[in-house]
Amino acid sequence: MAVFLNRETRVLCQGMTGWAGTYHVARMMEYGTQVVGGVTPGKGGRSHLNLPVYERVADARRETGANASIVFVPPANAAAAMIEAIEAEMPLVVTVTERIPTLDMVRVRSALKGGRTTLVGANSQGILVPGVGKLGVMATGSERPGGVGIISRSASLTSEVVAQVTAAGLGQSTTIGVGGDPIHGIGMRECLELLLEDADTECVVLIGEIGGTEEEEAAEYLAGARTSKPVIALIVGLEAPLDRRMGHAGALALSGKGDAAGKIRALEAAGVRIAPSAHLVGETVRQALAERS
Questions:
Q1: Cα separations (Å) of 151 from 50, 62, 181, 205?
Q2: Do 160 and 254 reside in the same domain of the chain?
Q3: Beta 133-136 vs 126-129: how paired, if at all?
Q4: Would you indicate the residue range of the signal peptide (predicted)?
C-alpha cells in the first residue's frame, strides 16, 4: 500500500481561502484527493470551493473526520498553524510554505516531540501517489503507478526523475518531498525505512543535494539494514561553492561539512548506486531492477 496517502485519507487545508490554497486545493481535488474542508481564522462558517471553512483545526477535524492537513499559511503564521494541527493530534501534516523563520521551526519541532503527528516539510512539494491522490503542489501528467519510491529534497528534480522513471517503463509507488529547509519534519532516513518496508515499493530513489546531513543519515541506516531492494541516489551540487546558499535555506555546504562529494562517498559505502548525472536517473533505476531480477 502507499505510504502516508491513500483513498481513505481525508484532508483539511489550513489557509485554503488564500490564492495559493485555492489554486492548489482545486488541483488536488481534480486529481482525486479527498479534501473535506478548510481552516482560516476569521472566516469560519463560510464555504469555499464548495467545502466548509472552520475557525480551528480541532473543530474541523471533529466535524469532518479529517486525518491529514496541508498548510498554505504564509511564513509569519505558518508555525502557529502547524502547532495548532499538532495539538489537535492530526496524524499527518504537510507544509508547503517556505522561508519560515528558523526559530519558529524549532518551536514546531519541540511541539512534535511525544505527539501523534508526522510532519512533512516545511518547504515541501508534498506527497504524490499516482492514480490515488496528491497532497501538495507537484506537477502531474508524467507520473504512473508502479514500484519506484522517491524521496527528495528538490521539487524541480523530483518532476524530472518522475518523468524519467515513467519513460523507462516503470512507475512510482509514493513520492515524498521532505522539504528544503534546514529544520523540518520527517527526514530521508525515516521515509527510507517506510518505503523499504512497503510491499508495493520495489526500489527507492534518493534525490539529495548539498547541505545538512539527510543523506549521511540515510547511508548510516542502510549500512546496517538488511534489504534486497535497490537504492539509487542522485546527489547534485558537486560544483557548488562552499559557504554560499544555493536555491533555498537547506542547500548550504560549509567547509568540511555537507558537500556533495562527502554525501556520495557515504552512500556508496552503504551500497547505494549513484546515478552519474541527473538525466540518467531513470536508466540507472531500470538497470538496477533488471540486475535484481
A1: 33, 32, 15, 6
A2: yes
A3: antiparallel
A4: none
d(C-alpha 210, C-alpha 161), whole Å:
18
Mark whether 37 and 100 lie in a shared domain: yes
* Cα gap 237→254, rounded to integer Å: 13
> What band does 1 get if pLDDT is binned at 50, 70 and 90?
low
For 44-80, write each residue's pLDDT tens digit.
999 999 999 999 999 999 999 999 999 999 999 999 9
Cell 568540511 belongs to which residue?
A: 256
Which residues are known catalytic residues? 248
Q: Quick check: is 133 in a domain?
A: no
Alpha-carbon gap, residue 115 to 112, rounded angstroms: 5
Q: Determine the pLDDT at residue 281.
A: 98
| pLDDT at 232 > cutoff 60 | yes
Residue 134 lies in a domain: no
Q: Any idea of the CA torsion for 87, 93, 95, 101, to the nearest 10 degrees?
A: 30
